[in-house]
Amino acid sequence: MRLLKKYMFRGKVADEPNEWVYGYLMNDNTIFQPRETKVSDCCGIGMFHVVTDSVGLCSGKVDSRTTLIFEGDIFKDLTSNRYYEVMYNGQEFLAIDSVDGEMYLLSSFHSREITVIGK
Question: Whose CA is closest to 88, among 56, 111, 119, 110?
Answer without folding.
Answer: 56
